[in-house]
Amino acid sequence: MNSHIPTLLLREWMQHKRGWLITAFAPPLLFLALLPFGQVQGMPSEHKELVALAILMVSASAVFAICLLVALFQMPGLARRDVQDRSIEFWLSLPGRPSESLAATVLAHAWLAPLGGAIVGTLFGLPIAMSLLAAKGGMSEVAGVNWGEVVAAALPLLLRGLAGTLPLLLWLTPLIFVLMAASAWLKRLGVPVVLVGGLVIVLVLNRVYDIGWPIEALIAWKSQLSLAILNDAPGLKDALMSDTNLWVWAMQDFGRALAQLASLQFLGWAAVAAAGFALVVAKRSRAG
After folding, report:
1. Looking at residues 79-107, what average pLDDT do you find?
2. Would you call 106 exposed, middle or buried from its count of C-beta atoms within 10 A (0-12, 13-18, 19+)?
3. Residue 206 class from Cβ within 10 Å (0-12 exposed, 13-18 middle, 19+ buried)?
4. Which residue, 184, 215, 211, is CA-closest to 199?
5. For a Cys staple, 182 with which of 19, 96, 141, 190, CB 3.0–4.6 Å?
6. Which residues, 6 or more positions from 12, have their beta carbon under 8 angstroms from its beta carbon?
7. Per-residue model confidence as pLDDT tens digits over 33-45
């Protein structure tokens, strides 16, 4: 059976590319434009290479986070998009299945668009680092940095972060599909009902009935989101301050993130995601 996901991904790009490009390019461009009017304070005067590396990583992480948050905010509404504009009738007439359309939507918005944002943030990372150092100490400060060393250290760390976006997406699927299912079936009330109702239920179970496992499960799930991108933060600090091979460290750290996907915790959340996915597919199938 042929997959229609590439065509559906192209559809998402054609429909949302302007918004994605603005979301990715606006933050670093705005920062660079406002930098001459601000003051740079609190930057360490030692370990200039580490400072430049940190700025580069923050640039990539910040743009990625902004793009991901925008995508998560938009995605519940995308569950109703094809029904509202009646394009569902066209897409259901094609050989592709509703599950493919849903998978393409999630891949495009929750993974590929933020991934592109991370790459944009990375490309702006060096200019931002140079601009901040120049604003602090002039061009002599910039010339005093071994930029080849910065780039060499950044490459394995950036690839580790980009690879970590995939397990991050897998950990996010329960939230994504539950909110999309709620929005598809309950329309505009879906997201408030799930978020507010879920919070009330968890608090009541914890404080009134002394049932703590729901809130503990949510806290553990939240911690996995950051561990997918950086599993061993203290280990990274030690590696940067020593002669540790960062490529080896990055592969080991990514291996630890992947190992978390074989846990019972992930399987439980995967079951929640599968249920939400099935509910959205069922609603799209009925809409035709």
Report:
1. 70
2. buried
3. middle
4. 215
5. 190
6. 104, 105, 108, 109
7. 998 887 777 677 6
